[in-house]
Amino acid sequence: MEKGQNVLRLPAEQLYQEEIDALIQAETDAVPQGWKMSPRSVLTYITGGKAGNTTISPKYIGHQRLVEIAIATLVTDRALLLIGEPGTAKSWLSEHLTAAINGDSSKVIQGTAGTTEEQIRYSWNYAMLIAEGPSNQALIKSPLYRAMETGTIARVEEISRCASEVQDAMISILSEKRISVPELGVEVPAQKGFSVIATANTRDKGVNEMSAALKRRFNIVVLPSPENIQEEMDIVKSRVAQLSASLDLNARLPEEEVIEKVCTIFRELRRGVTLDGKQKLKTPGGVLSTAEAISLLTNSMALAGSFGNGEITDYDLAAGLQGAVVKEEVKDGKVWEEYLENIMKKRGSKWVGLYKECRELNG
Q: Tens digits of per-residue pLDDT, 4-24?
């Protein structure tokens, strides 16, 4: 059986192993200690290009300078913090940076309200601890601990969702570049190449505000939403193609017109104004991010493949749009109804079918 054949989601370093190998083989620049390739090759891996005869697909479509700043940060001893709205590819960029730099994106701590300081530092196998006392065998190392001792990069997702005491533990580690294990009487210093990439969601600002002390330990890169509709369409088209290739959707990829309709609706409702800037709109409670547009189209493909003829119809799209826009039935239902009647209905023959299907579901 082929490696990873039945795995639902392969890590980036396995999914793009051929591209990473090609970049390493074609390397001509200096490679920092602990890295698999040079900063310039990491940039090519992220933004696309060529490595010998191998075409490198773009993983992030957006401002190249922001990617350059992120990579340059990781060459220094500073940690990197990626901030942005939901769906601006923070986690996606974080995963691919670690895949290219270390060939391993698996050292991840998922920040939640329930994340503890032990998950940042280390914990114990309590059965072994009681039976034998503190020992290296009883020690359970966190992803951050493993990154420090191997000189690699750890990822901390949604750091602003972590409680303040967890964030304080991060300050100590980023400042001292070592973890103390008093039970064993040892201190583990970070090896060269160690760093941290954290992500934070601007919508979660009020959950656990990051302290100024913690922010000072990071170089901050703000990832913006796609600048224009064509850029957003390119991102959506690329990601839907990648996702559908690993799923048995039994459907054709969405036409350009279908992608344009979804991105138009999302951008207008997200910004509260039509694309031409002539008409103001009420905005729903949800984010309507690029990531949600990708999810909506993938789900529409699943509907078309499972219950239709394999081609996305207005009927399939309407179901996805209803679920994406109307998160709170009373408020968002009204916003969506006004958009249908005041905007979509007046857009001409190309939009008539979608308007009718959406109207019927929202009724």
A: 567 778 899 999 999 999 999
* 274-279: Cβ within 8 A, 24+ apart: 274/343, 275/229, 279/342, 279/343
Phi, psi of 253, rounded to the nearest 5 degrees: -65, 145
pLDDT given for residue 294 in this prediction? 93
Q: Which residues contact 356 (CB under 8 A, 6 or more apart)?
A: 314
Structure tokens at 275: 């694309």
Tens of pLDDT, residues 22-50: 999 999 999 999 999 999 999 999 999 99
- Residue 296: pLDDT band by 50, 70, 90 thresholds? very high
In the block, which residue shows the tokens 């070592």? 178
User: Which residue, chain included where needed, has tokens 């570049």?
Assistant: 177
Q: Are strands 49-51 and 54-56 parallel, antiparallel or unpaired?
A: antiparallel
Q: Which two tokens stand for residue 349?
A: 């023959």
* Secondary structure (3-state) at 92: helix
Element (H, E) at 13: helix 12-15
DSSP 303-333: HHHHHSSSS--HHHHHHHHHHHH-SSHHHHH
Distance CA 135, CA 240 (A): 48
Please state, in angstroms and rounded to a whole number, the distance separating the CA atoms of residues 357 and 346. 15
- 10 Å CB burial of residue 207 (0-12, 13-18, 19+) is middle
Phi, psi of 81 (to 5 degrees): -120, 120
The letter for the amino acid at 184 is: L
* Ranges assigned E (strand) in the chain: 49-51, 54-56, 79-84, 108-110, 122-124, 139-141, 153-157, 178-181, 186-189, 195-201, 218-223
CB 163 within 8 A of CB 210: no
State which fold the 12-223 domain adopts: Rossmann fold (3.40.50)
Nearest-angstrom CA–CA distance, 184 and 117: 18
Q: Give domain limits for the chain.
A: 12-223, 229-362
